[in-house]
Amino acid sequence: MSLLVVGTVAFDQIETPFGKTDKILGGAATFIGMAASMLDVRAGIVSVIGDDFPQEYMDLMSSKNIDLSGIEKVEGGKTFFWAGRYRNDMNTRDTLTTELNVLENFQPAVPTGWKNPDVLMLGNLHPLVQKSVLNQLDARPKLVILDTMNFWMDHTWNELMDVLKDVDVLTINDEEARQMSKEYSLVKAAKKILEMGPHTLIIKKGEHGALLFHENNVFFAPALPLEDVFDPTGAGDTFAGGFSGFLAKTQNYSFENMKRAIIYGSALASFTVEKFGTDRLSELTEEEMVERLDVFKSLTNFDIELD
Length: 307
Ligand code: AMP
Prior knowledge:
Blueprint: E1 2-6, E2 10-16, E3 19-20, E4 24-26, H1 28-36, E5 42-50, H2 55-63, E6 66-74, E7 81-86, E8 93-99, E9 119-122, H3 127-136, E10 143-147, H4 150-155, H5 157-164, E11 169-173, H6 174-181, H7 186-194, E12 200-204, E13 210-214, E14 217-221, H8 235-250, H9 255-272, H10 279-283, H11 286-300
Parallel strand pairs: 1-5, 1-9, 2-7, 5-6, 9-10, 10-11, 11-12
Antiparallel strand pairs: 2-3, 2-4, 7-8, 12-13, 13-14
The structure holds adenosine monophosphate.
């Protein structure tokens, strides 16, 4: 039951209509690892930080039983920094700054104890870094999931297409699915993207839920209608952490089980948006998670008679 995660461990600065943060803990791998840790899987992160990264943040992740031995610290280096501002609808955001810093020359090194994970979650990062992690493993994991974003499509399209050939599941948002496929219809987009390598595609639609495509099957999970969405940052990564963590825990990679995994991902993501950054995820209890899964169940369960 092991999940290896590669992705950013970062400083984020976030502005929403409700307020603005200083530099706080963020990064794709951080959210993925913290979400997966709710599912009792052995999770390890491969990433890089600068010597400006506070020990307090490392301690927080360790306290969640996340193995940090694959996080390299570059002396004299600066941690990856991202700043974004949400519009009033809270669904669209503008990136204000992306400072790659130590990520610019990052050569990932998978620690010895992590060369045989059950599931590999390639979080949003340079596709060459994603590929390098895959190549360092002793055997192909039972499931390889990749997340990416428009930034890498704009700057490293060929490298992205190359690594995509080796993955099982791709997770992207609706806008990125349209950009990747050059199709407006998400059903047409899914068909095109599934020809690029992955056998399964998840399209994240923020407050409108997530679509799961596999061969000719489609499944849809709504997002929980929340009274207040405070900060959507990390929701996509939390979703990916819940999804990959559930699959690593249950060791069942069928379409049916992926449906369950999507519900876990959505339930965990619904917590992340309730507070800034990782604040809500870091205080989350198992009871709260189970309660929310129950709410999801009643939200989506219905009987209908068909004759
Ligand atoms: P999301 O789940 O899409 O809201 O992801 C938000 C996280 O992605 C933030 O914590 C950022 O640190 C991280 N991030 C932003 N831009 C990039 C990028 N170009 N590459 C990798 N991670 C990024």
